[in-house]
Amino acid sequence: MSAASSATPGSPQASSDPRPQAGRPDAALDPQVAQLLDLIARAKRPPINALDPLDAKIAYEKSAPILDIAPLPVHHVQDLSVPARDGHAIGARLYAPREASWADPLPLLLYFHGGGFTVGSPASHDPLCRLLSMRADCMVLSVDYRLGPQWRFPTAVHDAFDVLAWAYAEAGALGADPARIALGGDSAGGTLATACAVEARRLGHAPVLQMLIYPGTCARQDTPSHRALAEGYLLTAEMIQWFFAQYLDQDSSRDDWRFAPLDGGGSGADVAGCCPAWIAVAGYDPLHDEGVAYAAKLRAAGVPAELAEYPGMIHDFFKLGRFVPAVGQAHDDAVAALRGAFGAA
């Protein structure tokens, strides 16, 4: 999932409250985040889930740049087309921080944007991808996978898998090093990245990292953080279910591990042998607990998983850096994780 800046009217609960129930953080809400939520509440714009899906897509694209950092200049940006299994041309945007060659290939981050499988695009996540490319000194391939409600589950997963296979096959032609490919995504894009980590293992590939930014991983959205933070923090319970109503082909697909890698079908994805993970979670995010649980699932399977907690933050905070200075630390941490995985720390 991911929420537009106009997404949720409603004042946040008092940031100084101790955890009154399971699922609520002990830490105070970041003061700039609290101010932002207050501004959104005062604007009284309709939540994204009150819009027609097409209007929601437009609204998200318009609102995405407002609170995000200014886009960094990069050496090269190229729009590409990747063939899908059904003949569809999947759009992708390739960022390069410097010239690459066969003698000096660059690491590559395969990135999947958030947006509840319904909104979002490489354009909405352009500043983040530019930052990761320049500061981690890697190529970033940002994937324009197909969205609901026109394209329902498992189309987005198939698109992600097809781009994954293509990236490994074409790495040399792109100037990328196939031995240094990472997978990444935020929210719904984090779900796709988890699935790609499992698919990569099946294909015999060895990504160096899965960078999961507040990923969606559970089947029923019934964790303590989902219950305690259902209203008032940008991403609401009603919005989450609206997103999934646009995306899922049928309710039983919630039990498919490609939708719910944590617990789909009871045991979720078989993650043994998958690549290491760096997982960022926000304290005031309904998705907090499932990110924590997914890190535990990976560790239980013997997969190294670093959990980065940002207690005063909300969902989608990686894209609020223009308004919330503390987001800069999370960006630093993500860059450090990538550089470490690429052997460039």
TrEMBL record:
Gene3D superfamilies: alpha/beta hydrolase (3.40.50.1820)
Superkingdom of the source species: Bacteria
Residue segments, region Disordered: 1-28
Protein name: Alpha/beta hydrolase
Alphabetically ordered keywords of this record: Hydrolase
Family membership: Belongs to the 'GDXG' lipolytic enzyme family.
Source lineage: Bacteria, Pseudomonadati, Pseudomonadota, Betaproteobacteria, Burkholderiales
Molecular function terms from GO: hydrolase activity
Gene source species: Cupriavidus malaysiensis
Biased composition (Polar residues): 1-18
InterPro entries linked: AB_hydrolase_3, AB_hydrolase_fold, GDXG_lipolytic_enzyme, Lipase_GDXG_HIS_AS
Alpha/beta hydrolase fold-3 domain ranges (all copies): 109-318
